[in-house]
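Dear colleagues,

As part of the handover before I leave the project, I'm documenting each prediction I ran so the next person doesn't have to rerun anything. This entry is a single chain, and its sequence is reproduced below.
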Amino acid sequence: MIRIYRFIFFLLIIIISFSALSIPSETSISLTHFDKFLHFSAFLVLSIFLDLSYIYPLLKKKTLIFLLIAYALSIEVIQYFLPYRDAEFLDFLFDLLGILVYLMFAPKFKKGQQI
């Protein structure tokens, strides 16, 4: 099962990277602050699948948490240099919020699992 979760995690990385770095379409949803919800949701889901991809809880894998945060930051840094994208610090904060919310609630979800 771990292999499936890892596959889904890497598939999500590819989809999120493509979405974050491609040229936005003219018909993109333009609801105020909807993109913040997408940032939060994307990194919440990434955190879930990253956690499910390893036997040990994500809280014990500080390196993986750091890499996920570095990925969030790298997206914003790359977007800064793309003429058709805008980098926003608030986007990065919502990425972090998605990760932190999962880390706060993960022990409750995995309460029954002891390794």
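The two ends are 16 Å apart (CA to CA). Residues 13 and 46 are 8 Å apart (CA to CA).

All the best with the project,
I.
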